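Same chain as my last thread, 286 residues:
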Amino acid sequence: MSQKKPDSEWKEILTTEQFHIMRQKGTEPPNSGKYNHLFDDGIYRCSACGRELFDSKNKYDSGSGWPSFDATITESVELNIDTTLNMQRIEVVCAECEGHLGHLFSDGPKTTGQRYCVNSASLAFEPRKQEKTELETATFAAGCFWGIEDSLSKIPGVVDAVSGYIGGDIKDPTYEMVCTGTTGHAEAVQITFNPAVISYNKLVEIFFSIHNPTQLNRQGPDVGTQYRSAIFYHTDKQKNVAENTIKTLQKSLPNIVTEIVAAQLFFLAEEFHQKYYRKHGGTCHI
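reply #2:
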C-alpha cells in the first residue's frame, strides 16, 4: 500500500532533518549519521513509512562517511536519474513513500559492485529478534556431591547446579537414609545448562575428567553404592552421547564402571548440602 503524502503531512510526521533529506533531497554531513558505524544484526527500515529496505548482512564500511550497503531487500527501493550538481547520479528512493534515501554508486564490493550510499536520517534500525535458547537438564553422579556440584557450577553455560538423590526406591530420602546404602539412591548433581553455550557432549567429557570412573561404588575415601559413578540421561540423545563417550574412553581406560541410566525422580538434598563449598570453604578429593 502506497504511502504517498503531500509535504504538509510529511512535515507533521518527520523531524526537520528527516524532512530536509527525505522530501527535499538533502544530504547529511559525512560521518555525522548515527548508523555510519553501526554493524549490529538487524533490518534497516524507511524512517518515514517503515518499509524494510536493507539487511545488516549487506552493510559494510565503505569509508565514505555514510552507511553503505551492497544490496537491498527485494523491491524495497526505486532508482531515479538525478542530474543536480551538474552531474548525473542514480538516486535511491523508498519504493513505498518515495522518500529520498541516498545514491547508488558502482564502486561497491566485488560481490555486487554496488554501493548504496544512504543517509542515516532516512533509516530506522530494528535489531533482529534472537531465538530464545531452551535450557536443558543433565544429571551426574560421581561421588560426594559437594565437590561435583562445586566443579560443575563453575562451567560457563551452566545456569544452575543442585545436589540431590536419584536412582533409589523410596520417596523423599534424607541424607542419613541414603548414607546407609540401602535406599538405592546415588548422591548426584542436577544441572541446568544453556546448550548454545556448552554442549552436552562437553559436559560429559568434563564429568569424566573430574572423577575416577573406574572405581566401583566409591570415590576416594567415600565408599558405598551412593557414591557410584553414573550418568542419568534425560533424552535418547543424551544416552547416545554418554554411550559413545564411554566407548571412546575405553580405548585407553578399559575398566570404566560408570552406569548409564534413565533419569528418575530427583530429590533435592537438604539445604545444608547445597553450595557447600561456597558456604563453608574446602576442597574435594577429586
